[in-house]
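Side project, low priority. Logging it here so it doesn't get lost.
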Amino acid sequence: MQLSANKNIMVGILLAEKALLKSPYVKRYVPRLSMRVFIVVFAAMISSFAHSNSELDAENEGEAVGIIYGYFKKVDVIKFMCERKAPEKGALLSEAIDKWKTRNSSVVANLTDGLDRTPIDMREQLFEMAKQVSRNKIILFNKMSQSEKENTCASLAEHLNSDSYKNEYPIAYKLMSE
């Protein structure tokens, strides 16, 4: 049972990252050779976790925890960068995040509970992966022009205010809001 739950959380993280790659909030760039090597090695390391899902949404609670956690980390990193690089838009984004968390308090509480039920070693692995992904997001954000940074911050604020997350991950959202 524990291995299945751990696998589901890791699959959830992978699904969240896959969704991020398709996100309009991330500037596309051509990775350097060293980044390509990292991506190939990283994909080889985690391929055993990602073999069964072709959809971007959760199939169970473990995957939902991973997807929601990945989404929260994405939002936190972009908020952090917006507050430093585009302060006006950062304030707008902070307000949108606070409102989103208030409207979705059960999702936030269930995420915390889900992470608490995750074995410590898997949770540490999850947090380490999130750190690596966050570093990459920061690098991508720093490569944007100032107007792209401001647009990214404003777009994410609008995205949070519209609750379109429910449409992107309907099953994950439903599982985490129960």
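Brief comment: Residues 27-54 have pLDDT under 50 and may be disordered.
Revisit when time allows.
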